[in-house]
Amino acid sequence: MSHFSKAQHWDVPAAFAWDEALDHMELRFTLHNDPALIRSLVIYLQERAAAFNLCEGTLEKHVGIALEEALLNAFYYGCLELTSEQVRQAKAEIRRCGSAFSISQRQKTTPYCQRCIHVRATLSTAQAEFVIRDEGPGFDYSVCTPLVIDDGELSRPTGRGLLLMYSFMDEVRFNVAGNEVSMVLHAGHGRGDTQLDAD
Question: What is the pTM of this model?
């Protein structure tokens, strides 16, 4: 039997930057029914994408916005099954009081309290793909898909999150059920035509 000791090692500098040698990474997360987890996960994923030189500066912020909007949609509309009007009212209540009764009640009520958000991030030097799935019933994304994006649409009270996702990612796809969204950012990202597809 051979033994590996500290005296028997390859000549690798102690401070070797392993991030520079990394060319592929797949991460999986399960978020329980708590929106407080969303922001910290977004920051972590932004940092991972930046480590692969896929984004920096303003683009890194845009990636974070798209991820946060997708995760919040999964939480509010998927896991909690709130309507657009209920979400608007809840957000207004959060701004006034710091919390919303409608959200806290659903977080304690079956089946909403048992639902999770599943996140898979696959990153390489070529692209980053983020897949976000909630355990809700899904929605008809076709009625919300923006075929044309302009400044006026970004001020609309509903669908703003989807518009931002389409604006800041190269590809946006939903599954047939409407409870899973895949967003892709290519290396050398430049705003071309966003691909709007269903799996």
Answer: 0.81
| Mean pLDDT over the full length of the chain | 83
| 148 closest CA partner among 131, 136, 166, 134 | 166
Please give the radius of gyration of the chain, using alpha carbons only, rounded to the nearest integer: 20
Task: Say if residue 106 is exposed, middle or buried (CB neighbours under 10 Å; 0-12, 13-18, 19+).
Answer: buried
Cα 50 to its chain centre, rounded Å, is: 15
Q: What is the pLDDT of residue 154?
A: 47
Nearest to 80 by CA among 106, 52, 101, 54: 106
Helix (H, G, I), strand (E, B) or coil at 50: helix
Dihedral angle sign, alpha carbons of residues 121, 99, 104, 112? negative
The pLDDT, as a whole number, for residue 10 is: 57
Helix (H, G, I), strand (E, B), or coil: what is residue 120?
Answer: strand
In total, the chain counts a number of residues equal to 199
Q: Which band of pLDDT confidence, cut at 50, 70 and 90, is reported for residue 14?
A: low
